[in-house]
Design goal:
The protein contains six helices and twelve strands. The protein is α+β, with helices and mostly antiparallel strands and about 350 residues long. It folds into three domains: about 110 residues, Efflux pump adaptor protein, beta barrel domain (Elongation Factor Tu (Ef-tu), domain 3), CATH 2.40.30; about 60 residues, OB fold (Dihydrolipoamide Acetyltransferase, E2P), CATH 2.40.50.100; about 120 residues. The strands form two sheets. It has a six-stranded antiparallel beta barrel with strand order 1-8-11-10-9-12. β9 and β10 form a beta hairpin.
Amino acid sequence: MPKPLKIILIAIAIAALIFGIWHYFSDSDQDDSTLTLYGNIDIRQVELTFHDPEHIAEMYVKEGDQVKKGQLLAIQDLDRFQYALESAQAKVEAQRQIVERLIHGSRPEEIKKAEDDVKAAEAEVRFDKKEYDRLKKLVKRHLTSVESVDRARFKLEADRQKLQALKEIYRLAVIGPRTEDISSAKAELKAEESALKLAKKIWEDGHLYAPSEGIIQDRIMEPGDMADYRTPVFTMALIDPVWARVYVPEKRLGQLKYGMPATISTDSYPGKIYQGWVGFISPTAEFTPKTVETPELRTSLVYQIRIFACNANNELRLGMPVTVSIDTLSKKIIKEKSDCPEQS
């Protein structure tokens, strides 16, 4: 072999050895210390709707407004809901009076009247009996007609039936309503009260409130539009939690633990570091998304993880590209937002 060629081959071998040693130690350092990942800021979004169909009366926020939990965002035209509510309230009150009347039973005046009616009927029956007996004696002496006797007998029987009915009315007035009637009236009252609760809920649902703290992203409808549960009125981005969605290769997955601290940086605020922690590790692998641009990850199977961010000033926005660094040797554990260290 010519000497120049031999020298070249030896030089190439030495260079390859040096590169291999450098690559080995470089990977070893990476495996044992800092894990750098790339991804985007992600947040949860909600679509806010009214429940029942009605025209929108007023809207109080617009795109970009930051809102607090429980803040009133919009209301519908409440007239129909108000009428239904007042009707339900009146029905409940009427049924409540019926129940009260049944529970308290007959009034003393009603019992006294029933008793007087019985006494009057008894007197009428006594008179009818005497008249019937008198006419029977007269018919034997041919001083009256048989028809008169029959009419007297029929009247006596009718007044006896009337007396029996009045006695039953008096008895019922004394003992009061049946237990079954009271139970039935109470059940009807309960049904009316449920209808009132529903009417109140419908009226309340005519008001649209922010479910949590967030930022209005889209104002989809306007006053005068017909709104119901099928069409969102606003789209709102939730401020908390905010996380960086990144992907880690399978060979590095074993180095991660829930609560492990991490740092987040972005080109939007050069030099500023946001603290965070590992809050989610996907249980299943997937192909590397196209948004992950690092060459060594493009053809690998990866696991999605979420780095929850300490975002006190709401500077991290949806879709923002970020770089995440994780110290895989750290023993510190962060469990919730209150454990966030101060941002640098």
